[in-house]
Design goal:
The chain has eight helices and nine strands. The chain has 229 residues and is of the alpha/beta class. 27% of the residues are buried.
């Protein structure tokens, strides 16, 4: 606890101001005391939406140009010719066995994809997949007939995001060891994706506040008005 407290004290000493330009923010995050692993770079975006109105809730997916800096393990439920396509797309595991055996392995995967005809099998695992956020969903494209392309996109850095009950998007945009250019391009790809699905009835600014943070560090408020977003 003491060493952790010292680390956080150093972090708060580094971020003296309350709001920073985007480039400043990246430099500060990279100066935070290092951990024994490469931390993720996370973003929290507070949107000007009314979450009580279904049409204003945000849910989408986007491919980040530089990925997330980590291997995405994909489990696939499919049949017939799609099995070979899944292999070519380098799926990490293709279900072709007893359900009892796959239950033990589910915790090792980040994404579960299914073709429509295999959803009966997937449905039997809903009580395991659901709580882990792994249940295939047609809205996110994880229930699909296009197995090959879907796997490739996810492997290449596709993320899905949605707002919480407070209208905030929480997601990762890479790792702290990414170059500034990579971080910036991933960040703006996410922003462009959000702008494309901005609810038509939103009045005023769409983005209220944007914070960047590392896995084990404090968050920093960005002066997003300078970003022309």
């Amino acid at each position: 606890m003491k060493s952790n407290s010292k680390r956080m004290k150093k972090i708060y000493n580094i971020k003296k101001k309350k709001i920073y330009k985007f480039e400043e923010c990246i430099k500060i995050l990279k100066k935070f005391p290092k951990t024994n692993f490469v931390e993720s770079l996370d973003v929290s975006i507070n949107l000007n939406i009314d979450t009580k109105k279904p049409e204003q809730n945000i849910k989408n997916k986007v491919i980040l140009p530089h990925g997330l800096g980590k291997k995405i393990k994909v489990l696939v439920f499919t049949q017939g010719k799609n099995i070979e396509l899944a292999k070519k797309a380098k799926a990490d595991y293709i279900y072709q066995e007893n359900i009892k055996n796959i239950k033990k392995k589910i915790k090792n995967f980040n994404i579960v994809i299914s073709s429509p005809e295999s959803m009966k099998t997937v449905g039997k695992l809903g009580y395991i997949l659901g709580p882990r956020g792994l249940m295939p969903n047609i809205k996110f494209g994880t229930i699909t007939n296009n197995i090959f392309d879907t796997i490739k996109k996810i492997k290449n850095g596709q993320i899905k995001y949605k707002n919480d009950k407070n209208g905030i998007i929480h997601t990762s945009i890479g790792k702290v060891n990414f170059t500034n250019k990579q971080i910036k391009e991933n960040f703006f790809t996410l922003i462009k994706s959000l702008n494309k699905i901005k609810p038509s009835k939103i009045k005023g600014e769409f983005f209220k506040k944007i914070y960047l943070s590392t896995t084990m560090g404090g968050s920093i408020l960005i002066n997003h008005y300078d970003l022309n977003i």
